[in-house]
Design a protein that fits this description.
The complex is a heterodimer of chains A (about 160) and B (about 90). Chain A is of the alpha+beta class and about 160 residues long. Chain A has one domain: Molybdopterin biosynthesis MoaE subunit (Aldehyde Oxidoreductase, domain 3, Alpha-Beta Complex), CATH 3.90.1170. Chain A has five helices and ten strands; from the N terminus they run E-H-E-E-E-E-H-E-E-E-H-E-E-H-H. The longest helix of chain A is centred in the C-terminal third of the chain and has 18 residues. The two termini of chain A are about 25 Å apart. Chain B is built from three helices and five strands, in the order βαβααβββ. Chain B has one domain. Helices cover about 25% and strands about 25% of the residues of chain B. Chain B has a five-stranded mixed beta sheet. The N and C termini of chain B lie far apart (about 50 Å). The longest helix of chain B has 9 residues. Classes of the chains: A alpha+beta (about 160), B alpha+beta (about 90).
Chain lengths: ~160, ~90
Amino acid sequence: MTTTIRLQREPFDIAAEAAKLAGGRTDIGAVVTFTGICRADENGAPIAALTLEHYPGMAEAEIARHVEEARARWPLLGVTVIHRYGRLQPGEVIVLVATASSHRQAAFAAAEFLMDYLKTRAPFWKQVETVGGATWVEAKSADDAAAERWSAPPPRNEAAK
Amino acid sequence: MTAKATTKIKVLYFAWVRERIGLAEEEIEPPAAIATVGELTAWLAGRGEQYAHAFENPKAIRAAIDRSHVRADAKIEGAGEIAFFPPMTGG
């Protein structure tokens, strides 16, 4: 399985990364891409910019651990995760998670799994600039709940399918 | 019987933990009796007002040893690098 994990300041080209992932292969039937974008508001207040701090070394390692877990859970043929850091403006892309598989179920599920874990376990911290100054974004319990559901055993009717 | 020698550990701080303490990283030499992350947090909180402010709510602090998430009961012995940070907001 091809794995690409990059942390960078610079913007990236979603279409180019997806094309690299599929790479002319004929065994890949499904590519799912998720793009996270910087919104112009946080908690109802307009923001001028978003700055992402990260823990170099751990961020890559943590993302790699979760990509390995996704690979163990689903039949994936490729995964790309690109996460930016530094100062971003509203409208800019923050993160790309792209997954490739023979069929769509694995690609969709793995992309969602990776995003839920990126939100809660990858060492990045967001700070927003508003008219009032710079404030740290607080982690949301909804994100923890989303990540939690991947550790629950599947419901019985799912297992029976 | 020899007492356990104290070891130097590199400690990293991120986000508002870093802002409150005023340092991104430092080398510390905790007493030999400090065995776990939780005990280390409490010891750090006692180092001064800024540290106390950073660690005033231990439940709001997460830790990593050698770049892996750990819980408060994790042993610090042998750790090369310990990081303290708020809950993460990546993605």
